[in-house]
Design goal:
Radius of gyration of chain A: 30 Å
Oligomer: homodimer
Number of domains of chain A: 2
Strand content of chain A: 5-15%
Number of strands of chain A: 8
Shape of chain A: elongated
CATH architecture of the largest domain in chain A: 3-Layer(aba) Sandwich
Largest sheet of chain A: 7 strands, parallel
Strand order of the largest sheet of chain A: 3-2-1-6-4-7-5
CATH class of the largest domain in chain A: Alpha Beta
Chain lengths: ~260, ~260
């Protein structure tokens, strides 16, 4: 703890996984990692042998207010020390070789971590240094490896981006937001009856102005107009606006008609 | 096109969404966005009124080799111009207000974008400037808004992180990697029969050394040992090692016994 007290209230959540940055090089990146952690609801940070020592002012400058995570970060000499009090450890690792280990996607790992956390067990998430990644001894400390499904032709993933993806999956694993919704704010989605009222109004005016005068084609034309207005969800407010548009256009047409008659 | 030819071969994929950065401020961020795009298989970049002009050397320096995306980026005066040839536009937007619009999660948007791309239609993904985000006129250019499910107590999301999440979801939407697998490399998962052979070997040696001499407790002890070895998947190579360990420990014990007898 460095005793600072700035930064956003991050609403820490109890048993979230501990992010362990192993031999991180740049304090900028440590700050960016803290910011990504806060975005995804990961609040516990441990640093194993940070190259430039700790604390580093740059980390706080680059964390966009995730100060509390940095304030509470602990420093450890070894991975073994950093994970000694944890129950389950996952290691992110782009291309593991010649080892026998469970390998999970980020999404698979997030689902497992949620189940583990529900049991009251504590979890560690290891991230390797910027260039080299985790070495074989680091990986041997983990129960399972996490490999993100990403473009194999361009695997150069920034450290904070790697933390972001995992933090995002951790948050999303407990999120129930529907994949698609219609934001209506002050108004609501119109009922079919309200839509029908508008379509009747529109059709009346189109009959009046002669747009539908071709009687053999009229049913198909009306149906096509109906198909268009049925395509998306229309709100009550939008229907009021559409009624207004039709009324005003029709008045304008009648007035012009009257002027031409004069 | 600036005519550079460095950078990684990104294996461009045909009909991937076009990332449109609206009034981006920092060239560093534009480079980081290109890197995140390459990670997730997004290859088409357009810039609307970049604050410091274009091209900017800093963007290439910060893209970790995603040069081709930057080389091919186009610059536009307005959002309308940048999306004029596209069929469907999604706008990322943290907190839209007072508008009526479909709102999707990143995952929901990725699923929809895959379906749209399969139909041969082209897609644009709008990201706003670093601080302000997209304004109301920008959002009115979009068919739908994308809002990430992330910690509402800490919404400060870096521009490149926002691109990363969407690029990751785009890639993942077409990925079929199992959520959990066991990487076995040169060896394979042992069959139950192979495991049984080892357990028989172990039990024989434990009988011989007297570890199981308490006959009433013996069945339960054997069962507990069996439960432990059944818990995870064991590989053929690991079983060979375990056979060797048991054999060697038993030999050592016999030899020590012989020494003690002498």
């Amino acid at each position: 703890m460095t005793g600072r007290d700035g930064g956003a209230d991050l609403h820490p959540i109890g048993n979230s996984p501990v992010v362990v940055l192993v031999r991180p090089q740049l304090a900028d990146n440590i700050g960016a990692c803290a910011r990504a952690m806060a975005n995804g609801g990961l609040f516990h940070l441990r640093l194993v042998a940070p190259r430039d020592g700790w604390p580093q002012e740059k980390a706080w400058r680059n964390s966009s207010g995730a100060d509390r995570i940095l304030d509470a970060a602990t420093v450890h000499d070894t991975v073994a020390d950093a994970v000694a009090d944890l129950h389950r450890v996952f290691a992110t690792c782009p291309r593991p070789r010649h080892i026998v280990k469970p390998v999970l996607t980020a999404r698979g790992a997030a689902a497992e971590m949620r189940l583990i956390a529900e049991r009251g067990l504590s979890i560690g998430l290891l991230f390797g240094p910027e260039r080299a990644g985790l070495d074989n001894d680091d990986m041997a400390q983990a129960d399972a490896l996490v490999r993100y499904p990403l473009n194999p032709a361009f695997m150069s993933l920034n450290l904070a981006q790697a933390v972001m993806v995992m933090a995002y999956e951790w948050w999303t694993a407990a999120d129930t937001t529907p994949g698609r919704t219609l934001m209506t704010n002050e108004t609501k989605v119109a009922t079919k009856g309200q839509l029908e009222n508008f379509l009747a109004h529109l059709t009346d005016q189109l009959d009046a102005c002669g747009f539908l005068r071709n009687l053999p084609k009229r049913p198909g034309m009306v149906r096509n107009i109906r198909h268009f207005f049925q395509r998306g969800e229309v709100t009550e407010q939008e229907l009021r606006t559409l009624h207004g548009i039709v009324t005003e256009l029709a008045i304008g047409r009648r007035q012009r008609g009257r002027l031409e008659e004069e």
